[in-house]
Amino acid sequence: MREIIFSDPHRQKHFDLFNRMNHPHYCICANVDITALLSYLRKEEMMFTPAIVYLISRVANELPAFKQRIHGKKVIEHDQVNPSFSVQTQVSDVFSFCEVKYQPSAPLFIEATKLQMKKMEEDPVIEDQDRDDYLFLSSLPWISFTGLTHAMHYHPCDSVPRITWGKYFEEGDKIKMPLSLQVHHALVDGRHMGQYYMRWEELAADPENWLSTL
Questions:
Q1: Which stretches of the chain are assigned E, i.e. beta strand?
Q2: Distance set, CA 71 to CA 4, 34, 156, 157, 203 (Å)
Q3: I need a surface site. Which of 12, 50, 57, 114 has the fewest CB within 10 A?
Q4: Is the alpha carbon torsion for 151, 140, 168, 207 positive or negative?
Q5: What single string gives the DSSP state of each residue in 59-101?
Q6: pLDDT digit string (tens) for 79-131?
Q7: Is residue 109 situated within a structural domain?
Q8: What is the C-alpha to C-alpha distance for residues 154 and 147, in angstroms, rounded to an integer?
Q9: What is the per-residue pLDDT across 19-70, written as a single tens digit (0 to 9) for each?
Q10: For the domain that residue 178 is a member of, what is the CATH number?
């Protein structure tokens, strides 16, 4: 973890402007192409959710803005951010948090995620952790949504990104999936959001390159 000092005065003004706002978060929803990814997962009989969680987390860890958090009057950047995502449980009609430590190897991450998902399905957790080196992830597999908002703390402000995926659907000869990013505007600008979506689709188009590599 390191402190971020904005050397560009205009960047500092940008941060100050949005950080003063009562509601400094914004959300973008886009339909991403998962045609190649879904085909590969089906061919290899791999679980969908662990692969999606890995891909979401990998892209966030590649982009510094998604690892930055506001600590009082300071901005810090974590060395790594880790997914905490929702899973359905076997013992209740509400979800459980499922936290997994991110690691660059997709196969190793996916195996660890499958074990943790099974544990949380049987012994759910909903406690709020006093850390912000997270990515808060969730899924709405019943809905191909076009817009989304999240419950969160505004005072003091929560700067952890929220990322949600929904029900995939056919569009011509492609399979698309809604992917929603909600972020703090003082840290993540529209350009960073664009970089996220472009990198996500780049990796999704070539799943064998990362899913089959230890």
A1: 2-4, 25-33, 68-71, 74-77, 82-87, 96-99, 134-140, 162-166, 169-171, 174-184
A2: 11, 36, 10, 9, 32
A3: 12
A4: positive
A5: HHHHSGGGGEEEETTEEEE-S--EEEEEE--SS-SS-EEEE--
A6: 999 998 877 766 566 667 788 999 999 999 999 999 988 877 766 666 666 78
A7: yes
A8: 20
A9: 999 899 999 999 999 999 999 999 999 999 999 999 999 999 999 999 999 9
A10: 3.30.559.10
Both tokens of residue 20?
């003063």
Contacts of 91 (CB under 8 A, 6+ apart): 122, 123, 124
Q: How many residues does the chain have?
A: 214
Can you give the residue range of the structural domain that contains 158? 23-211
- According to DSSP, the residues that pair with 90 across neighbouring strands are none
The two three-digit tokens of residue 168, written as one number:
């995939």
Residue 5 lies in a domain: no
Q: What span, in angstroms and rounded, lies between the C-alpha atoms of 85 and 101?
A: 11
pLDDT tens, position by position, 172-194: 999 999 999 999 999 999 999 99
Q: What pTM was estimated for this model as a whole? A: 0.92
Q: Which of 192, 191, 178 is nearest to 29 (CA)?
A: 178
Q: Is residue 7 part of a domain?
A: no
CA distances for 44 relative to 27, 41, 124, 191, angstroms: 33, 5, 29, 35
The pLDDT of residue 123 is 65
Report the pLDDT value the prediction gives residue 85, as an integer from 0 to 100. 82
Please count the structural domains in the chain: 1
Whole-number pLDDT of residue 97 = 79
Mean pLDDT of 200-208: 97
